[in-house]
# Entry
Amino acid sequence: MRMTRFLACVAAAVFTVGLASTRTAPQLAARTTEDWLKTLESPARVAGLKIDETVARLKLKPGDVVADIGAGSGLFEGPLAKAVTSGGKIYAVDIDQGLLDNIDKRTKEFQITNVQTVLGKFADPNLPTRDVDLAFIDDVLHHIEDRAGYLKNLTGYLKPSGRVAVIEFIPSKGGHQNQPELQITKEQGTAWMAAAGMKPVEEFDLFDTKWFVIYERR
Ligand SMILES: C[S@@+](CC[C@H](N)C(=O)[O-])C[C@H]1O[C@@H](n2cnc3c(N)ncnc32)[C@H](O)[C@@H]1O
# Structure
């Protein structure tokens, strides 16, 4: 009897381990908050982001509402907040509450009042309003499992004139070189956006290793 109970426990454990190992992680290449902060803020990465040049190309206007999807440590929040002025709003979305706390701390420290952090869901940005002028998604899409589904959900939060700016590594040139599951071509991104009813309207060659495209409704 004791042996039967033991075998049943072993079988249950094997089943549980099996389930855990086949369960797909919602965030691909996940890291801890501390690890993200260290990685995202390395001086070489920050310089390579060309933050001011990128924000200038978004052509934001005073009063605009921006959703920064996968805001990370919040490197873009200051320049985005400045571009939309105090009459505009930045939703800094991430699925990591620790990173959002870091953004709240920083915006408070720098007295930036037009940034609101939002705890997103894995498959949906979970924004409180559907009045977004521009969704900005830099170095994030490859972490999302269902990219097409996420982009479709994201476009549901845009104003009719709303735009989506995507920046991702060019598979042959940068980032995650040996991890094809973490690579996204511009053509793939554009096909998913087309399925969400969006077409490319601007493309920038600001980076040697990344593609940068802005989409709007067709
Ligand atoms: C490589 S970092 C980029 C951070 C920031 N955009 C930047 O360029 O500095 C990727 C970020 O995406 C976030 N992320 C991953 N999956 C997400 C999802 N489904 N929704 C929102 N954020 C997500 C991660 O927590 C992380 O902060």
